[in-house]
């Protein structure tokens, strides 16, 4: 089955998918996905797609000019098999074949009013500790890169886990969870325009140390 998927990727996907790196500081832009492939999402480096005949796997295709595929493959090699992470099954010239994770990102949970339990926060804490034990440095862990699956937390994107510079995004997520989400919003959908305003304000403030006071370790 994996060999069949790789053939589909090499012949039907990679030559025909159109993804562009318009601005290195912003996510890539997906112009075209050939049928029957379905776009699941796009990030800073790549687009993630699936084929309806291979529901257990996804393919992450890197945009031309965006680096990082070798680094991401190395991250998955170090992580091995863990319930909170995907697994890399094949590395191509500009794509990875990954085990598919199912569920809703925390961001989508906020939009839909899906309750995020404290167990999911603990699961992600544990998964990030596991990554550190394997010489990795969890980076860029935020609401669109973590997922809720039947009450359990998963980490969706590990592409920056070889970066060694400090990253406090997950501590900031936990702070917001404990200060605002759990007391007020845990059963209420939050409008997308409000989430985007919060996200942009957070980036503009440069991850204010005042906001991070009390990083939410009581989860």
From TrEMBL:
Protein's UniProt keywords contain Transferase: yes
Molecular function via GO: protein serine/threonine kinase activity
Lineage top rank: taxon: Bacteria
Cross-referenced PANTHER family: SERINE/THREONINE-PROTEIN KINASE YRZF-RELATED (PTHR37171), SERINE_THREONINE-PROTEIN KINASE YRZF-RELATED (PTHR37171:SF1)
Entry annotated with the keyword Kinase: yes
Keywords noted in UniProt: Kinase, Serine/threonine-protein kinase, Transferase
InterPro entries with a match to the protein in the record: Kinase-like_dom_sf (IPR011009), Meiotic_Drive_Suppr_Kinase (IPR052396)
Protein name: Serine/threonine protein kinase
